[in-house]
Amino acid sequence: MIYLDPALTPASLRPDLDRLWEVSAQKIRALDARYDPADGAPVFTVDGRYTARGWTEWTQGFQFGAALLQFDATDDRAMLELGRARTVERMHPHVTHFGVHDHGFNNVSTYGALRRLALEGRFDASEWERRFYDMALIASGSVQARRWTALPDDADGRKAGYVYSFNGPQSLFVDTIRSMRSLAVAHQLGGVLGGEHDEPVSLLDRLAMHARATARYSVYYGEGRDGYDVRGRTVHEAIFNLNDGFFRCPSTQQGYSPFSTWTRGLAWALLGSVEELEWLATRPEAERAAAGDLDAVLLRAATATADFYLDQTPTCGVPYWDTGAPELHRLGDYLSRPADPYNDYEPVDSSAAAIAAQGLLRLGRLTGEARYTQAGLAVTKTLLSEPYLSTDPSHEGLLLHAVYHWPNRWDHVPEGRKVACGESCMWGDYHLRELALTVQRMADASAPVYTFFGPIS
After folding, report:
1. Domains of the chain, CATH where assigned
2. Would you state the pLDDT for residue 156?
């Protein structure tokens, strides 16, 4: 269980945040200067150097979005220009990429960040530049929403469905809930998906249906759904029978089993649910009414996953890669002490911690429950310190001890070690920066709350 320190505040983390941004700037510049885009988007490090991994192109936006977060936090104009130039030069193929479920990662982290910064008055953007960002975001959200599997109407007669993963129309991934922010922004900008015979398809409706499907099939609530139904547990992939649209079974691609919890999937469910809940609260009353009880659905999923994370994570706030990993028992009472990234049995996943911490902080702000806020700050404190913060200038990563796909053994195991450790990944580095920006704005009473969709009071 995560240790909560009531004395920890956002302001008390300012020295750690300042060091983070100093280290971060050097790594952003070094990677941009060294990495050849012809090699594909960087994914994770091997011996401290970023390399690609062909599976799906979902990390490019994190690379260039990192520079925009750096500018946001430090006012370093060179970082703004770097992020803006690379977005224009290299992100356009991702806007119309029909083959992935990751538009909320790639495009909201780049075009969306630039739009948000312009909206906040952080830099001067002409009307045409703002329209360029808007058009990219509207197109991206529509392309994302086009990956659609319809399900039978639910018990209340509401239409149902989900944005399917790159595995195919039968596959609902838990991590796609955070990618729904692409639909949210596109809808906010007036976007509508045009269907056959010019039928208009509401992006808000598809976002709501996907969120309901994720909360229903990907999150557990201790209601006896199966023999492993523990409140707050998540499943990576839900499989459906396309002949009749009915749910068939849980599955996983990156976790240990369908009946254990892949902790990065848990973190995606937490952060994605609470972010969409934040966004929904800003929408007009008519839209909230049309969404029915979606706010209650999202809050239920967010609190369940947050509670599970607090209970099933070591005291430092960094989880092992899967709560059911087969060799965890060899570590003894591992939940009663800080995680050990150098153990001989199972890897930790610091990237899951960076994602979950932001979700905990946002949930604490929305609910007023201090335990979520304190847990988010505790995780942040851990990640801003050794052995997780990478201060070695020769290592291109920022957040150490992250894993990508341990079942496939894609993650690098250093010589003399038995499990992956000491390496970084694009989403881990990005989300550590995003977490740091979130906390930094919390420490500044005059700063607007950091959200993906623009300033809120």
Report:
1. 11-443 (1.50.10.10)
2. 85
